[in-house]
Amino acid sequence: MEDLHAIIKGCTGNDHKHQKMLYERFYGYALKIVFRYIYHYDKAVDVVNDGFVKLFHNFHKFESRDGAQTEKLLMGWLKRIMVNTAIDELRRRHMLPEIGDLPDHIWQIADNNLAADQKVLYKELIEHVKKLPPSYRAVFNMYVIDGFSHQEIANALGISVGACKSNLSKARAHLKQYLKKDEESTEICNL
């Protein structure tokens, strides 16, 4: 934790060495966040880099606290910046779906608190989320995975709260169908 406080202090002072350390420490985390919105690997990397530029440009706004909460606060702030940067990119591209895949080594940079089976389930969930239409996918990611409120999503995407709730409901229905098909195909394979 001491190390993170030194990195944060260095980033606040616009020290490039500490910025590089923060970038390397949270790059995999940021890429997984962005990849839930933008599925082309090269484009996702560009968005992550843009997000880190925004993060470092506004680092003076981050309120560091002593104690164990610092890393969680930083990760939450980084998550919000990455989601907003990805949404901005989707808006520029008129939310066109992209096709691509994250290399397997990115999934190995997973949260140390997750068990191996949770990492596999997460990856499978993301594979199904990728199949959703872009508007459903964005709302699902923002609400279920990233924890935004309906009002925040509506504001970010420029839609009504009702449309947000409707898109979330439809996304969940699609995902249930995908999971049901997976379950049925698993049962057939086990026969």
Automatic annotation (TrEMBL):
Q: Which residues form the RNA polymerase sigma-70 region domain?
A: 22-93
CDD domains, alphabetized: Sigma70_r4
Superkingdom assignment: Bacteria
* The RNA polymerase sigma factor 70 region 4 type domain, residue ranges: 125-175
Gene Ontology annotations of biological process type: DNA-templated transcription initiation
Give UniProt keywords alphabetically.
Sigma factor, Transcription, Transcription regulation
Q: Does the keyword Cytoplasm apply?
A: no
Q: Identify a single GO molecular function assigned to this protein.
A: sigma factor activity
Q: What family, per the record?
A: Belongs to the sigma-70 factor family. ECF subfamily.
Write down what this protein is called. RNA polymerase sigma factor
Q: State the organism's lineage.
A: Bacteria, Pseudomonadati, Bacteroidota, Chitinophagia, Chitinophagales
